[in-house]
Amino acid sequence: MLFNSLHFVVFFVIVLALNQGLRPWPTAQKFMLLAASYYFYGQWSWMYLGIIVYSTLLDYSIALGMVRVSRPRYLLLLSLATNLGLLAFFKYANWLIDNWNAASDAVGFALQVTPIDLILPVGISFYTFQSLSYTIDVYRGVSQPRRNLLDYALFVSFFPQLAAGPIVRDYEFFRELDGEKRVDAGDVQRALVLIAFGFVKKIVFADNLALYVDPIFANPSHHGFWDSLLAVYAFSFQIYCDFSGYTDIAIGLALLLGFRYPQNFNYPYFADSVQEFWRRWHMTLSRWLRDYLYISLGGNRHGNLHTYFNLMLTMLLGGLWHGASWNFVIWGGLHGAYLAFERAVLFRLPFWNADNALMRTLRWLLTFNLVCFAWIFFRAKTFGDATTMIANIAGAAAPAFDPARHLGMLLLLVALLAVHLLGGWKGFKEWLARERGPVFAVTLATIGLLLIWFTPAATVPFIYFQF
Amino acid sequence: MKTLLKFVAPILLLMVCEALFRLGIWEGMVKPESHAGTSVRLKRALNDPAMQKLDFVTLGSSRPVYGIDHEALARIALEHGAVHANLSMPGSHWMTVDVLTEWLAAHRPNLRGGVIAMDLTTFMYPGNGSYELAIVAPFRGFADDAVISAHVPFKRDEMASWGAHSALYQYREDIQDYIKAPLQRRESVNWWNAMPAADVLLRNAKEAREMCEFGVDRVAACDKVDSSTTEAANGLRHQCRELRGALAGQPDFAALMRQQPMPDYLQQVRDNIRSRLRALHWPRPPVVVLMPLTGAWKEASPLGLHEWTLSVLQPLVDEGRIRLIDATDALAAADNGGCQQYFDFFHQNDSGRQMLMDAVLPQIRAALYDDAPAPAARVAATNE
User: Fold this and answer.
1) Pair A257, A368 in one domain
2) Distance separating alpha carbons of residues B361 and B277, to the nearest angstrom
């Protein structure tokens, strides 16, 4: 069930009405939200709903057990092994088999393994990370185990965030769950703005940019300099609009149900360093990787070389988290290298860090282009396709600009970048969300017109659903 | 109350936009080369001060656009001190007749009569697909959704059909196209706007090409189209796909007519057409001309289609509501199956128009201007 489907709209209106109606009875309200969340997931696969239930029961029991046993480390290892094992099985089994087969082929070792017929459960990367963060926090003593199974089940499966985040921490969720969950007119206005902007980002921009990007990345060898260059920048905005659009909708829907979720994107292309980019892009995943991986590896506590190694390893695993492909590993590796290079070189150069407009612009320009370059590997189907795209852009062939093909896309991308930078600069969305009737009405009506006029005929799923 | 207003205001604004689009705010920007653009051009010409007196009109699809001698009809009208305008448009079906005649009733109440030129294939289905919504959009009334839905029902999965109920949706593709090249659109609109109204409403479409390289008398002519690499063949491939598709799914209307009850869609075709023609209160009964069909289309059309069409129209003839000129076979006996009279599988060229007019113009003249009522006529196949 996609957010941009009529089925979901009907479903959500019913849930919203029940949520309001059941406010005097919190337990019934939680039961209803859990049932709705399971129904939401069941519409995709009732069978795979079993994995969520299994993961929920296991981590719930483990967390309760941790405060009772003398050696909780073993219980933590069990949680890690089970959750990561499930993730590895569904996400990486066939990739490992493919690599094994290729390697054994290369060395003439005739032991081929047949790939397994598997479908990746939607949202598994998100809910396993969310569930894991809970057991780790309980182990670390940051959180207390939740005794109410209903509460914990809802934490793992709450439908606005289930498919693609944001990845919230247990204390953030339970604070909202235990709170009054009062939704006033200001909240509704904020939620509607978030949802409306989310739909515009997803449907009007991401889905239409995909129409330009997809054919070029599907056959990069058939395209030249301008096609390839614009496709890379267009994909940079497509993935931003797609994913941040989804999270805007998710956060808006949660807000309508009385749950205030943390921000997940903060104008990431406004960043003037890659480090800052990761503080603005998929913020809840960055936070997860920092708290549970980078810091667990030692963070920056053991000298420069160790820090660079930790950064690289964290980003490599972060890349692999996105999908079972060497291209994702390269994408993560590039970001690890960027971060290490910034720490080792750029952050130590006083002129580079000067606080003036010229240097800020140069820093922003470098960061934006480094991030866009890495997206090539993220989007390309194969390593060969990625290198072809790079060769198209860096190649010696004279670039021919065809205004009929390229001018419109170039102007659209410049406009998107301008709006993005304006938003990052002045907090446009917050300004809009304040109590101003006419601005709110005109904005929402304009968004309605954009959706009517520019929704592509075919529904395109959210990119991050595949992760 | 203030809070409620705040949340209702965006919806109200959208409704205002919908109303403005229904009132025609976007018509000045519509792509002139599109279906809607043709229709807007016609509406603009009708609103020209020089065209305020209008006595007779010709309505119909692209077949009369090419197949009827509009200049001759205008000349005859002039001889009688009247004005006869050509309002036929490519892609028009009975929904266009519905909407256009309603518009004429409201804006040209002194209209005396007209020619409705259709062909047998327009009697097969209640509608001709959602693209016809673009043709009728500039002429639609404010609350005619029910009339439109009878021809193009709303389908949730087919966004083009949403235009039946929303002018904002109706102009979706046009606005998308405009965004891609706004300056080009402006130039194109200005060029078309400079065209005099008389050129739009009183002139013939010229077409000299013919079909003797391939033939038009059999669907098998498409085999020659397939094996040819000429530009002419490329332009015919789409029509060949339609022809073969029709031949493959050829229903038997003769049998369906005898079914009790008759299939719903046939009843709907019959009822829509009859109720429309009965609702026309022109001083002269409308002259319904059944335009010639090529042999290929007769082969691919449903069995018994001609019989079905006449069964729909004959009661109206008997009631004196319409005059019928059946020219379906008017060019059938021409040399080589009429290949010299057509420029594709649908449309007549200048020579075909001349041959048809030689056969039907006297009857049209009589029906529109003579006092004595003319009986229904079937135009004999000619071989001139």
Assistant:
1) yes
2) 22
